[in-house]
Structure formats: structure tokens, C-alpha cells
């Protein structure tokens, strides 16, 4: 009797354990869609700034600009003159080991003097490769014309190019490269958070539902109505009295607040690669879909007629022979009911045997019929 009870208890324990595991799994899945505020929004005024500069890459193994690139020649002469070497004839300057480049960088928000940032170096002339080159000192300017960083260092190229008179081989883009930590910040962009009584937070993807959820989550954490939504993108956050002297602590408190962002139903079609991306909120109204493939094959087979051997007269005649064949695949009719999800649509179309490019045409036709309850974007 005890053994039977133990067996029942063991079986019951397994059932309870399985139910608890499922509950934990569902609870976990419910939080999977939550995102931190810092991942979907940013504080207004704290952003990256674009920097750009013109420079020269030296030390190339004959893969630099040609002599017809005049601005490279003039740049070399100007640099040499600044170094004390004067009276240089531009016609005697050979630039095959030098390439003119555009240097770009992103200055992060709150960057300080002396901080290192990465730079991207791109060929401006007709150089074949920047492999093995070194960027000489290049000032990087902002949109206001002021110098914010100085760049210099060896260029790292993730490709190569080689060839001869009859053949050549190339991997990736050898005329563009990077210099990790290649620029040093020389000027700061002033950002003062201490005297602000109100901060504004901007969502990356404007949405009324998401901004409402974000406001509720921020107010729950702060314990009062300090945040309010101005529009679908902007949240105005009044600095609480306890955080007036430490706005950094305020941002650290709210940036990890978890929010479930809402997205608009959207279908993105890339006709160049045949890629189709659809969101989970896409709905299909009742519609019938039939898709058949039409294939046309044309084959040319010329017919040659010539006289027999040792004929006293005659000539060879070539007559064109064309064979055309048209075949149309038997498209099956698929009916999608009202409220069908995107998963049901994909399963139904896969059953018909459509390709991604056929799916693009079908989705456009469903949208034209008014049965696709989503925003259709073709890129």
C-alpha cells in the first residue's frame, strides 16, 4: 500500500513539476519582448557628431594615385613646403606611393579631450589599394569648421587586389580601411546636465503606444508623475527634487526600465535580393490566391543545306530554325480566411511551392486587393 502511495506521489510530483516549468517558461516568454529604455530611446542633446577631414596615405607599394590626380600632387608639394623643402617642381612629383583620402569619424557624446576614436579612411583618387599605407597627421573638423580631433596611424585594410596584364583578383574593397583608435579628441562638445530642470527623451521609432508605456514605466519607478508624453516620439521628464544635484543618477535609474515596445504592422520587400521580412502583427483578410509560373523557352537551331560532293554548281545555304515552347505551371488556389496570421499565410504559400521572389509578387497583389492589413514597403 505504501509503495502504491509513493508511486502516486511520485507521478503527481512529476506533473506538478512539469506544470511549474511551463508556467515559468510562459512567464519568461512574456518578458522576452521587453526592452530597456536605453535601447529604444536617447536623451535629447546626447548624440554622435560627424567629423571629416582630407589627408594623405603614404608608404604604398606603387598602388597610389596616378599622375593625373592633380590635387594629390599639390597636397604633397604643400606638405613638403611646410616642412622646409621649397622650390618643388610639380611635374617631378611621382604619387604612385601616395593616395589622397577622405577621413571620417564619429565623435561620441560626452567625449573628452584625449579620448581615442576610430576613423575610416577612403580613397579619393584612382589609387588601387591602401594596403600597407600610413595616414599622416590629419585634422578632423565638424560642421562648424572647427577642429575636434587629429587622426594619424597605419591603415588596416580588410582586402587586397593583385593582377597582371591578363588577369586580376580582388577581395573586398582595398581602397577603404580603418584605423582603430586612430584619432585623438582635441576639443570637447559642451553638454551641461546640471542646470536642466527638464530632460527630453526621444524614441528611435515614434509610436503612441510605446511612448505611453514608457511614461507609465518611468513614473512607476520614480513614484510620481514626473514624465509626460509630448508626442509619439518625445517624453518630457521633470527632474525630481532628489535628483537636481545628480542628473546622472536620474538617467541611470530610468535607462534600465523595461518597456514592451509596440510596432506597426509592416511588410518589407527587397526585390534585389528576394528577401521578405514580415512582422508578427500583420493580418490578412479573406482572400483567394492562385499563382502559376509561366515559362517561355526559345531555341535557335540553324539548318545548313549544301550541294553534294563534286557538284558542278550550287552553294551552301543556311536557313534559321526557331523552336518556341510555352509552359505554364498549374497554380493551386489557396484561400486565406479573415484574421489569418502571417504564419498561416507563409505556411499556405509554402504548401503551394512559391519562391521568395514569387512571394514578393503575391504580397503586392494582396495589398492591391486591399486584403493586407499592414504597411507594405518595397526597398
Summarize this, please?
The protein is 25% helix and 34% strand.
What does this structure look like?
The protein is α+β, with helices and mostly antiparallel strands. It folds into 3 domains: 49-158 and 172-185, no CATH class; 198-259; 266-292 and 321-378, no CATH class. Helix content is 25%, strand content 34%. The protein has helices at residues 2-32, 37-40, 70-82, 208-222, 247-254, 342-352, 356-368, and strands spanning 35-36, 41-43, 49-58, 98-107, 116-123, 134-141, 147-154, 160-163, 168-171, 176-185, 198-203, 227-229, 234-238, 258-259, 266-270, 275-278, 283-284, 287-290, 294-300, 303-305, 317-319, 322-328, 333-336, 340-341, 372-373, 375-378. The strands form 9 sheets. The chain has a 6-stranded antiparallel barrel with strand order 3-4-5-10-7-6. β6 (134-141) and β7 form a beta hairpin. The longest helix has 31 residues, at 2-32. The chain is flat and about 115 Å long. The model is unreliable at 1-32 (pLDDT under 50).
Main attributes of the structure:
379 residues, alpha+beta, 3 domains, 7 helices, 26 strands, 25% helix, flat, disordered N terminus
